[in-house]
Amino acid sequence: MNNFKHTHSAHCESGVMSSMLSHHGLKLSEPMVFGLSSAMTFAYLPFLKLGGLPLIAYRNMPKSIIKNIRKNLKIKMQLETFSKAEKGQERLDELLSEGKIVGAQTSVYWLEYFPEEMRFHFNAHNLIIYAKNEDGIYEISDPVFETPQVCSQKSLSKARFVKGVMAPKGLLYYPTDVPKDINLKPIIAKNIKKTAKRMLKTPVPIEGIRAIKYLAKHIRGLAKKDKRYAKLFLGNIVRMQEEIGTGGAGFRYIYAAFLKEASELFESNQTLDEASKMMLAVGDEWRDFALAIAKSIKPKKEIDFDGLSDKLLTIAEHEADVYRKMLEFKS
Amino acid sequence: MDVNSVPQDDSSTYAKHKKAIYAADNEGNVGVVASSGWEVEEAATKQALHDLEDSAKEAYELVKSGEMSPLYFHMYDVRMDLQVLSESTGFFKWTIKKDFDVAKFAKIKAKRLAVYAEAMGKTEEELKVLPKGLYE
Fold first, then answer.
1. Of B129, B97, B33, B47, which Cα lies nearest the Cα of A298?
2. Least CB-CB distance to B30: which of A9, A115, A260?
3. What domains can you pick out in chain A, each with its CATH number?
4. In chain B, which residue's Cα lies nearest the Cα of A111?
5. What is the DSSP letter of A141?
6. pLDDT in tens, chain A (331 residues)
7. Where do the structural domains in chain B lie, given as residue ranges?
8. Number of Cβ atoms within 10 Å of the Cβ of A206
9. Which residue of A29, A67, A272, B35 is 20 to 30 Å from B89, comparing CA positions?
């Protein structure tokens, strides 16, 4: 047995990396992983449609947390994909028999332990497989679940080898060399700057603060569109924000936790402490925004497009304030 | 968010599970609180689930009345649409649409049916027929 300890996390990828590194002796909280990998973002891609509705993302691309942590902390990690499901299954069993804990990318839909209500076709979920018991059942630490889960080989294999957008191709990952003592301070400082700059100074309006304003503009324009479409468009914002993964507000809260932890590492740094509080408040505003949409798309309600758009512009301003505050930080 | 305002709405869409949310205590320390649900999120999820359910139901009737092949129902039954099915099988959308034709689907090649079966997690036999007694 490898004595793996499951932890309940807000987001799958940061949760997996936090548990995995902690298991290997490098204790990093989920928010610390999230912050150190510059995972915070906002992207609005009106030309990339899912089910006819535009993609809105509140964090960086899938797999970027794994890759950025590997790069920023100089951790040696092995990432393996497979062209054949059988090969991928064998490799997983082999790694488990060596006593390793193994990260995997999967679909959500095909994991049997997910309740019906949460099963959608999303292929960039992450989890840790930490054992295979005598009955051939895998023991799984899925970070978004409170307790460890179990999964049959058939279901896990299907989830790992699903085809389509962001197909996992059976991706398995595990560290091979984890440094025990890392001076986090310079990496924290660097990534705080990087995140702030990326959000404030994007060259294109599809990422960062500019993308939030771009979305606000499109919401205003919905007044001239078909009402059914307008409702779906707005409902989609909430779904993207609250249901897919952790949610827009959720990521702001994680980042606030990171800023707080960072402030303590820098001898109770005031600037970071303030930035943390501001980010918490911005998270609350995102939730209020979701609430306002939910109210306005109820049947027989007139939708106040200008009101929603204004609300979003205010969020954009307040979130920009947090990034400006972060830029004031001197390590 | 404040630890005391983390919503505990017992959302049916959480199916008794809990979600981790970071919230601040009195000293400004931010840590995980388990949330049993939030009604705003529940409403958005339900809207999406109802959409899927309606599509499956509609498809069921169309197949039952002989206008569409069983494949059309099974696609929605596994919460896919033409886009997702196309991505999961590697088939072009227009070729999948042909398989929605009752007469053409009856003559589908075994190899092609096997690809659908694999992508949709059903057996070839299951795909060929409409399950009885649903939505009644």
1. B47
2. A260
3. 12-50+59-177 (3.90.70.10), 184-327 (no CATH)
4. B121
5. E
6. 688 999 999 999 999 999 999 999 999 999 999 999 999 999 999 988 776 788 888 888 889 999 999 999 999 999 999 999 999 999 999 999 999 999 999 999 999 999 998 888 888 899 999 999 999 999 999 999 999 999 999 999 999 999 988 899 999 999 999 998 899 999 999 999 999 999 999 888 999 999 999 999 999 999 999 888 898 899 888 877 765 555 678 899 999 999 999 999 999 999 999 999 999 999 999 999 999 998 888 777 789 999 999 999 999 999 999 999 999 999 8
7. 3-37, 48-128
8. 18
9. A67
Question: What is the distance between the alpha carbons of residues A14 and A106, in angstroms, rounded to a whole number?
Answer: 15
| Maximum distance among all Cα pairs of chain A, rounded to whole angstroms | 62
The pTM of this model reads: 0.93
- Paired tokens of A257: 């936790």
Q: Does domain B48-128 have CATH number 1.10.10?
A: no
* Closest CA–CA distance from residue B19 to any residue of chain A (Å): 6
How many A-B residue pairs are in contact by the CB < 8 A criterion? 116
| Residue B89 forms contact with A (CB below 8 Å) | yes
Four-CA torsion A257, A260, A265, A269, nearest 10 degrees: 160
**Do residues A143 and A250 touch, judged by C-beta distance below 8 A?**
no
How far does the CA of residue B88 sit from the closest CA of chain A (Å)? 5
DSSP-derived letter for residue B9 is -
Interface test with A, best of B8, B30, B89, B122 (most A CBs within 10 A): B30
Kindly calculate the radius of gyration of chain B based on its CA atoms and give it in whole angstroms: 21
